[in-house]
Specification:
By secondary structure, the protein is of the alpha/beta class. It is built from 16 helices and 7 strands. The longest helix has 24 residues, at 141-164. InterPro entries: Homeodomain-like_sf, HTH_AraC, HTH_AraC-typ_CS, Tscrpt_reg_AraC-type_HTH, Tscrpt_reg_HTH_surface_antigen.
């Protein structure tokens, strides 16, 4: 380990002395810029012997003298790595997730090294880099995330406590949320006429201020609710999520409140129409459509679908054609080709698309695509969008 060529590279990058000791604290190797032999004082070796027998949950121990001069001790496998000494120029509380501090006297660091070249401005960066070098892990990332989460929870509790001291929501605010509930119920039923009636009224709860950012925030929440509602009623989740993301992007680009309101109305109408398409079907056909949409990556056979819903193949064919005005196999093929178009526009390869949509091979996929679209997958992928709309 002490002869690993990357250690010398690490020394060159850090511009810090590196001293390597074995478990018995015998000097194995040292890297210095100056041409000198390191001399570990007896006091320092005594302190290291004490630390050797201590267990620490943190990767580093900072041996720090009263002057701020420090050595970073990093135990790894059966070795002890010492980095420094360097002048500590950072609040030690910022290093609490990486290192424990261990006070030593000034004599421990009498290593006869020119110290003026060894200044470390951001000690935490140094320790993170060393730890990553040895373990390929970023220590304390989860710890930092936990600290952020705890702070958020504290802020939420504080906000709730403050709200308890305020008046209860007004009747107007309650009516606003009842209004949204009724609107979503109408969307769930695919009742476009009733939804349009709702759209003639204000959609934003009165708890929101009527400014651009508040309207955007409420719209984004509503887009998420609409997409989840659509998925639960049988709409393809790819379509629902893509539509949601599209509306969110458009919403963020809006410069006026009026633009946000128009966009929100568009989303509500679109999702209502899409949900209405599924609500117009019988319970069985709606479930079959949902099953097909969720399993486009597989080779879908009528036999498999019939077994899934405990119906005979002949009954499935008959009921499906009656409601959908096409055979079940035609519907499956059309849905696969619609998905293939999206994947082609995302520059996926024909082979990958063929595999992901359950075709037997790329040639079979290409033949099916050309028969339905009128051009090969490659031609579709390279053609301008205006030529294929």
């Amino acid at each position: 380990m002490q002869d690993h060529p990357l250690l010398e590279a690490l020394h060159s990058c850090l511009k810090l002395p590196i001293i390597i000791l074995n478990h018995d604290l015998k000097l194995l190797k040292a890297f210095f810029h100056a041409s000198c032999q390191p001399s570990l004082t007896t006091d320092l070796l005594d302190e290291l012997a004490l630390l050797r027998n201590r267990k620490s949950l943190l990767p580093f121990t900072l041996l720090t003298a009263p002057s701020g001069l420090s050595l970073a001790l990093y135990p790894f496998q059966d070795y002890f790595f010492l980095f420094g000494p360097f002048q500590l120029a950072q609040n030690l509380t910022k290093l609490s997730s990486l290192a424990q501090t261990y006070p030593i006297n000034q004599k421990c660091l009498d290593l006869k090294i020119e110290l003026e070249t060894y200044q470390v401005i951001e000690t935490s960066h140094l320790l993170h880099l060393i730890h990553y070098f040895f373990t390929d892990e970023v220590h304390s990332l989860k710890t930092e995330q936990a600290q952020i989460t705890n702070q958020i929870l504290l802020d939420i509790r504080k906000g709730l406590s403050e709200n308890l001291l305020q008046d209860y929501p007004s009747e107007e605010e309650d009516q606003g949320f009842d209004f949204e509930f009724e609107l979503l119920e109408s969307i769930k039923k695919g009742d476009l006429q009733k939804v349009r009636l709702f759209l003639s009224q204000d959609l934003t709860p009165s708890s929101y201020h009527k400014n651009l950012r508040s309207e955007k925030n409420y719209s984004i929440i509503l887009f998420e609710k609409l997409s989840q509602l659509a998925i639960t009623t049988g709409v393809d989740y790819h379509y629902a999520h893509h539509s949601r993301d599209y509306y969110i992007d458009k919403c963020e680009a809006c410069q006026k409140t009026s633009e946000v309101l128009l966009l929100r109305e568009s989303a509500i109408i679109l999702f209502t129409q899409k949900i209405g398409q599924f609500n117009s079907h019988s319970y069985l056909i709606s479930n079959i459509l949902h099953y097909i949409n969720q399993n486009l990556s597989k080779k879908l056979l009528i036999e498999t679908i019939a077994k899934e819903f405990n119906f005979s193949e002949s009954n499935i064919r008959k009921l499906f054609r009656k409601e959908m005005a096409c055979s079940i196999q035609q519907y499956i093929s059309r849905k696969k080709i619609e998905e293939a178009k999206i994947l082609l526009r995302q520059q996926n390869s024909v082979t990958d698309i063929s595999n992901s949509l359950g075709y037997s091979d790329a040639a079979h996929f290409s033949r099916s695509f050309k028969a339905m679209v009128g051009m090969s997958p490659k031609q579709f992928q390279t053609a301008p969008i205006r030529d294929i709309i």
